[in-house]
Specification:
By secondary structure, this protein is α/β, with parallel strands linked by helices. It contains 6 helices and 7 strands; from the N terminus they run βαβαβαβαβαββα. The protein has one domain: Formyl transferase, N-terminal domain (Rossmann fold, 3-Layer(aba) Sandwich), CATH 3.40.50.170. The structure holds 5-O-phosphono-beta-D-ribofuranosylamine.
Length: 184
């Protein structure tokens, strides 16, 4: 199985997916970021994997930006687009073109807390549990069919920062394995 990984920032999930290649049967054929400053780019360099960069700030329209991404993708042979902390909303046209092949990881127990600031919202709501969701990407934001969820109990001492790191630790563990099972 061949995958392309999209990311925008620190890339801990990107790194776990790259490392997962030695354990699971998939190959990261290329990576993509919309952020030329993303610190996750170093993980591609360390692993000698091409990282394609298109700065979204150079595009006025989301469609024009996504058209460029499509040009990049169409020149490659792959099975899945894996979103790993990719912080741009994909246009409807883009999702329609690749629907069924785009996977995302979202830091909440969907359908609770789609969108941003999930950890803060969980704390504000006084929830007892929190977690992460791996799902197919569809037109509606963070609402596609769920592939896997993992949860944990929130402790009274938890803060937004501690929840971010607890969620990421789980994500880094489950994302590579879940990806490897997409094609059985
Ligand atoms: C993760 O928590 C993921 O669920 C969300 O963005 C975060 C990315 O973290 N979509 P990282 O860049 O992989 O460290």
């Amino acid at each position: 199985m061949k995958i392309v990984v999209f990311f925008s920032g620190t890339g801990t999930n990107l790194n776990s997916i790259i490392q997962g290649q030695s354990v699971y049967k998939y190959d990261v054929v290329s990576c993509f970021t919309n952020n030329p400053e993303a610190s996750g780019i170093k993980f591609c360099q360390e692993a000698n994997i091409a990282c394609h960069i298109i700065d979204h700030q150079l595009y006025k329209e989301r469609e024009a930006f996504d058209f460029e991404i499509n040009e990049y993708l169409n020149a490659m042979n792959f099975d899945y687009i894996i979103l790993a902390g990719y912080m741009r909303i994909l246009s409807k046209k883009f999702v329609a073109e690749w629907e069924g092949q785009i996977i995302n990881i979202h830091p909440s127990l969907l359908p609770k807390y789609p969108g941003l600031d999930t950890h803060k919202r969980v704390l504000e709501s006084g929830d007892k549990i929190h977690g992460t969701t791996i799902h197919y990407v569809t037109e509606e934001l963070d609402a596609g069919p769920i592939i896997r969820q993992e949860s944990f109990k929130i402790e009274p001492s938890d803060s937004e920062e501690s929840l971010i790191s607890k969620v990421k630790e789980i994500e880094n563990n489950i994302y590579p394995e879940t990806i490897s099972k997409l094609i059985t």
